[in-house]
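[Amino acid chain]
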Amino acid sequence: MGSAVIHDDLELYLTERLRADLAARPEPYCQGFTVSNKWPDPVESRPDRLLVIRDDSGPSTSFITADRSVGFTLLLPDEQDANAAARMVLALATQVPGLEPGNPVAIVRSTNGPYAVTEQAPGFRRYLTVTYGVAGRAL
């Protein structure tokens, strides 16, 4: 009889990781971000600098591995800052794979974006995706 495999909460890991990674950057456009896996409700309560990370799941690739498509949505009040911050988030998101304890990400399979998304509320929205290969752990 084999072991059951569980995959860790990738959204939680990426939210904590990107929050710390952005705060550690010296660029002004990286400072003051709210990083979450949910959009604030109501819309009027949105912070000026917001990064929402959403795990859209994906296929299992073996008994212990899977691919996970993750969406990163940024919302900033300034267009140039939105563009720069989106490029920075992509750069940081591609540096996630590693062997440190608690990191489920083994490889970056692909990226898409960043690109502009029409925003109905004030601000500039940018979106990008990263597909990660993740490894589960035995229960």
Notes: The first strand starts at residue 5 and ends at 6.
